[in-house]
Structures are given as C-alpha cells and as structure tokens.
Amino acid sequence: MSSPVPQVRSRMPRVAERAVERARLTVVPRTRGQAARMPFVALVTLVLLGGVVGLLLFNTSMQQSSFAATALEGQATTLAARQQSLEMDLDRLRDPQRIAAAAQQLGMVQACGPAFVRLGSGAVSGRPCAADGSVPFRITPPPPAKPAALDPAPTVVHVTAPPPVSAGDSGDTNGEAAGTGEGQGRNDHKNQQHLQQQQQQQQQTRR
Amino acid sequence: MRQPRAPRGSRRGSPQLRLRVGFVVIAMTLSVFGARLVQLQGLDPNSYAAMAAAEGLVKVDLPAERGDILDRNGKPLAGSIDGLMVVADPAMTAERAPELARFLYQRLDVDYVTTLNRLREQGSRFEYIARRVPATKATEVVDAAERRGFEGLDTRRDPLRDYPAGDVAANLVGFMGTDEPLAGLERTFDGLLAGTDGSARYEVGGGNRIPLGESTVTDPVDGQDLRTTLDLDLQWYTQRVLGQTVEGARGDSGFAVVMDSRTGELLAVADYPTFDANDPTSSPKADLGSRAMQDVYEPGSVEKVLTVSSLIDLGLVTPRTRIVVPPQLQREDRPINDWFPHGTIHLTLAGVIAKSSNIGTVLAADKFEQGQLYDYLRDFGLGRRTDIGVRGETQGLLPDGSAWTHQMQDRIAFGQSLSVNGVQMAAAVNTIANDGVRVSPSLVQGEATTGDGDVVGTDTTTKRRVISTGAAHDTARMMERVVDPDVGVAPGAAVPGYRVAGKTGTAQRVGEECGCYDGTFTVSFAGFAPADDPRFTIYVVVQNPRNGGGGGSVGGPAFAKIMSYALQRYGVPPTDTKPSRLPVEW
Q1: What is the CATH number of the domain that holds B552?
Q2: B439 found inside a domain
Q3: Are residues B295 and B170 in the same domain?
Q4: Are residues B313 and B184 in the same domain?
Q5: Do B497 and A92 touch (CB under 8 A)?
Q6: Out of B253, B301, B524, B580, which one is annotated catalytic?
C-alpha cells in the first residue's frame, strides 16, 4: 500500500489502538441517501405524456394533410381536365378549316402566286400580281345529294303555243287565256330546267 | 442504526418459482400467437386478405395517357383528353324522366327521345346517356343536375380521342373504335401510342387516404407522341384543292402527294373523298383507307419520264435525239396510237415528252436491251412497297421474268401494263428531281416501330443513285417543256415566275367488273419546282373524270395551286435562271 499509513500508525498512541480497531469494524453508514422519487416519476410521466400527445398531434396533422391532399388531388384533376378541354378548344380554333372560313367571311381571297421582296435590296423576285379573288376556292364539300323521294323526276308538260291572235274585241279573252297558258308553260319549263340541273348535280355527287 | 430489512420478495415466493410461472405464462401467450399465426397465414390466408381488402382498401386504375399524333410543327392531328361517360340509374331517374331528358338534351347534345327511353328503362339499373364527353363538361352537367334536384346520374371514366382538324389527314391518321384503334397510324403504331396502364391500392377512410396505411402504386407509363412529317396547313390546302379538282372534273376519287424533294419527307398525302375522323361511321367504308397507298392503278404517261431518263442514263439518246413519229405504229399484237391525231411528225425526244407521244416513246424504248428497263423501273422503286408505315400498302405490279415480253415493254414504256401506288410513283418522279438519287419516302419523323415490327421513319431513309446527275438534269429540262404554253400539253401547271418541270398522264383504267380497259381514265400530273433546284415534288391523280379532261387540264391546275402554296409557305424564291429552250421539233 501507500507509504504514509505506517507513519500515521506509528504516531498514534497505544490506548487509542483498540478504539481504532473497533471503529474499523463498524458498518459504514450509507452515505447515499435515498434519491427523491418525485422528480423521476414526474420526468417519466412527462415523457410519456409528451410522447402520447405528440403522437396524437402528429397523427392529427397527418390526417389533416391527408384531407388536404385529397382535396388538392380533386382540384388537380378538375384543373387538368379543364386544361385539356381548353387545349381542345384551342386546337379547334387553330383548325385550318375554321381559319379559312373566317378569312373568307372577312372577304379574303387566295394569293395569285408566290412573289418575294428582298428586304436588303428591295428587289422583287417572282411575278407579283394583285389578288382579285377571280379563282374561286371552295373550302366546304358540296351539299349531299337529296334522296330520290325528295327529288322526283321532273314532270314534263308540253304546251303548244297558240297561233298569234289578230287584234280584235272577240279575240281578247282568248289571247289572255293563251297568254296565261304560255306563262305557265314557261314556268314549267324553268322548273323543269331547274329540276334537271338539280338532278345532274345529284348524279355528280353520287358518282 | 436500522435493522436490515427482510429480503425482498419473501412474500412473493421464491425467485425460481416466480421465474417458472413467468416462463409458462409467456410460453402460453406465445403459443397462442403462434397458433393464430398459423391459422392466419397457413390455413386460409386468402379469405382474410380479402376481408382486409374489403375493409377500406381501394384499388384504382391509373390509366396511361395515349400519345398524340402530331404534324411536323407539333400541331396535333390526334390528341387525347380526359373524358367521362354520363350514366343513369333508371330506378332513380324514371320518376322525373321527361324533365331530366329535356335538361340533358339541352346540355349534352343527345337525342331527346332516346334519352327519355333510357331514363325510364324498366328493370335496368345502368344506362348510358352520353359517351366520351369532355370531363369538365360532364361534371358540370351532372353537378347542375344535382343542384336542380335530379338524382341517379353519375359519371365514369371514358377516354376521349379528339381529332381537332376533322378530316385533315384522316385517311392516314385513322381513328379509334370504342376501345381499340381501328385504322391508320392509330392502329399501326398502337404499341408506341398506347402506353401501359398503372394501378394504385390504398386504404381509405371517409373518402380520404389513411396515412401510414397500406399503399402500393404502380405508376402508369404514358404513350409516346408520334410525330409525322405532314404539314397540317399544307395538308389541309392540298385536300381542299384536290376536292375541288375531283368535283370539278366529276371524277370518282383522287389523291395528291406532296413530297420534300431533298429528304423524301411526305408533307401532304391527300385523299378524296375523305371522312371526318371524329365521326368515321357516317362515311362509306371505301373512303376510310388511303387511296394514295392502297389503290393500284396504271400511271400512264407520267411513267415516260422514267423510261427516257433511263435511256439518257444509258447514253442511248439525248434530249435532242430526232425521232420520226408516224401516225400509227403497228406492233406485234396491236397498233399503238397517240392521244392526238397527227400525220408523220418530226419530234425531238424533248418534243416526245412535251407532247406526250406514245409512239415516240416506244420508238426510243426500242434501244433498250432485254431487261434493262425492268432493272431501272425496279431501281426507281416500282413493284415494291415504300414501307412508310401505312397499313395495307400495295406493292403495285411490275411484270418480270417471262411476263416481260416485247409487246409488254412497248406498253410499259408509256406507262400501261404496270401498276403503282401513289407514293411509290411520287418517289420515282422525285428521283429525277433529286439529281437522280432515289430517296425513300417517309411519313414518320425520327423512327417508330410498326405493329408488324418494321422500323420506319426519317432515320431509316435510304438513298440510292438510279440515274446520273446529267440524265436527271436533261430529263428535268425536257419536263419543263411540258408546261410551256406554246409547245407543251399542260400550260395550266405553270407557276408564274418559277421554272416548273412536270409530266401529264392520262391512262386507260382497268374496270373492276370486267378486268379490262373499260373506257375510263386515270388522269394525273407529276412535277417539281423550281426545275433547276427542286424543293417539292407534287403528284396529283384523279380517277375517272367525266368532264373529258386529261392530265394537263385536270391535274395541271391543281398541281400549280398546291405548288404555289408550298413555295409561298416555305419561302422558296424563284431561281431566276433561264428556262429550258430545248427544241421540240426538227
């Protein structure tokens, strides 16, 4: 052991030796007093409580964000659908057929031929000419042919023209009558022509 | 001094006993767990899984979005949008059916009577009211109906394919049926366009996804876009000009092909009559395909430019070769006539082309040795498919071997007795425009794989020299004489200010019933401009015109209109060089 101990022992008086001996055998009192329980229990309770409350809050917030996610997803779907619809509208508006129809409505006509102006020199290449719309440009198909039931064969009525009536009181009524007849005949003829034209057109389209 | 305490647990029995009891309790509990585990996992796992699934587990299909079909500038020819179907439960709607039918008729563009009948269908719980309605519109209508107190309407997913330009390029793009593509590019490239649907499984409570609950998501793979080489605006213009031309000539049908001379890209492939891709069922079935690719016909005099360019390439003739053209040429089996009556005339080879003389061409073609013309025509791409990705393309008919007789060669030399498809012929004529190099035509930009596994597109373009540059230039100069107002047969095809090279064709047509020439004609015009530096090759064909017109008077003006538009649209200025002045007579 360490060296100072024998020195101390040697300096001690003999009488005290026994007492010292006894004192040695005594059970050493517990120096560590029992720790207070309160703080520990409080700490554990606090931790447990904090954990439970925290978990609850965490769960609640997750639920809340889940609600928000569902709502936002719904909104995103709606907006995506809306965007697609609008894009479809846009494509419809960009349809060359629509643009051409709108242009024709504004009175625009086809250019007569390509010609170019060189901006640097101002030189013109190609043969420029005025677009006068003399060449018709049809952008819509011809109307569909009528079914036969709606477009019957023309009824041809031959009307012989009456001989010219000489001027006279007795002939007036006859003349009028003849005139009317003739008029009807002409009308018929016109109708017939019209119908024939229609029929021709119809045949064309059928072909 | 405190008395030491009695040992702990003296009242609880000995530690060993306690341990034993504890172990027994734990063992019992664990064996209960184990038994339950075996019961759950070993004996009947599926029924429990199903029960769990039924309890709030939701499975949702995540549909892949179908790719768009685009033109060369990215404008859509076909696009997909979110669609919904509106369905009704007649058990709930029957009561106020007339009122609801009226409401739906006003909002959804449906037939009133049909809707009314469906709304009060007896014994049914599910009826379609409207299909493929844009999602926004469908939800709007159903919400509005609910606000008015109507019950029993619902929506379901129903993808909607939209063709914004209607009939533009419809013959190539094709269309969709209820569930699958039925025609055209839609069907050929379905594998590329369709994509793969995904799915999601998750637990819900009260309509919301449960956080930390089970959740598996397989993301859908959207279809890819298909970008074509077509130019939407040019395609539209070509279709309208073609329509007007066919109607004006009172023809059966027609088609027009516009090709970029240098790259072989098809800028427009128009067919007439055509159909509205948004409503294909209202058109006859015969109009739903692409006539430019699927019909065979005899090209007629347009083919003469292939014959004479081959002759020039062989060094057998020049544009100034003098030919004596008799009024009629007696050949083995039948006499050959020209389309115009004439006595014996003296034409140069350029004159033979400018006047489109059959006799002159046959006399020049006599210089071929056996098999030479066949090889050239084959190199020009006749008799084999162009494989641009259009379904049902015909390969045409080029007689070979024993079928190639001398009489046959006479007729083939001016374009009869062989059959082609429109794009094939356009590519052949384009060979002359492209300095004698045939560039394979293409319809798809980049590359794409067809349903049959062929890879097509501009990336797979092949170039092959067929005739020499000199022969191509000589032929182009002769073709310029065709549109000359003084000596040519197609002055109507001229584009003012530009050098235009072209060739008319008026071919006898084989009728479907008799399988013989039935007195009807196929008239056509093929050409390119500017003649000395071609940018576009255009081929217009009209079947069976009844106005008595030929290739020059029917096809020529249509060619000129389309060419003018293309030159203007792509900003191609005139070359301002001297036009061809080759002599036509001697």
Answers
A1: 3.40.710.10
A2: yes
A3: no
A4: no
A5: no
A6: B301
pTM to 2 decimals?
A: 0.78
- Is the ipTM higher than 0.85? The answer is no
DSSP-derived letter for residue A130 is -
Q: Rounded to a whole number, what is the distance in Å from the CA of B373 to chain A's nearest CA? A: 38
Same domain, B314 and B444: yes
Is the CB of residue B405 less than 8 Å from the CB of residue B291? Answer: no
Domain span holding position B104: 88-116+126-152
* Residue B177 within any structural domain of the chain: yes
Interface probe, candidates A30, A87, A88, A205, chain B, greatest B C-beta count within 10 A: A88
Q: In this predicted model, what pLDDT tens digit does every residue of B262-285 receive, in sequence order?
A: 999 999 999 988 998 888 888 888
B363 vs chain A: nearest CA distance in angstroms? 39
Strands, E assignment, B135-188? 153-157, 160-162
Helix (H/G/I), strand (E/B), else coil: B536: strand
**Secondary structure class of B51 (helix, strand, coil):** helix
Q: Are residues B515 and B422 in the same domain?
A: yes
DSSP B372-407: HHHHHHHHTTTTS---SS-TT----B---GGG--HH
- Ranges under pLDDT 70 in chain B: 1-12, 52-53
Nearest to B301 by CA among B416, B218, B202: B416
pLDDT score at B364? 92
Q: Is residue B379 part of a domain?
A: yes
pLDDT at B241: 93
Are residues B423 and B450 part of one domain?
yes
**CATH code of the domain covering residue B71:** 3.90.1310.10
On the 0-12 / 13-18 / 19+ scale of CB atoms within 10 A, B486 is exposed
Whether A126 sits inside 8 A of B496 (CB atoms) is yes
Q: How would you classify residue B206: left for phi > 0, otherwise alpha for psi between -120 and 50, otherwise beta?
A: left
Asked if A91 lies within 8 A of B164 by C-beta distance, the reply is: yes
Verify whether the Cβ–Cβ distance A88 to B81 is below 8 Å. Answer: yes
Residues contacting A183, CB < 8 A, separation 6+: none
pLDDT digits (tens, 9 = 90+) for B380-418: 999 989 888 888 888 888 888 788 888 888 889 988 889
Number of domains chain B contains: 3
Quick one: B297 and B407 in the same domain? yes
User: Low-confidence residues of chain A, pLDDT below 70?
Assistant: 1-15, 22-28, 32-33, 165-207
Helix axes A96-105, A37-94, angle to 10 degrees: 50
3-state secondary structure of A7: helix
Can B301 be counted among the known catalytic residues? yes
Residues B144 and B169 in one domain: no
Q: What is the pLDDT of residue B469?
A: 94
Within-domain flag for B34: no
Q: Give the pLDDT of residue A8.
A: 52
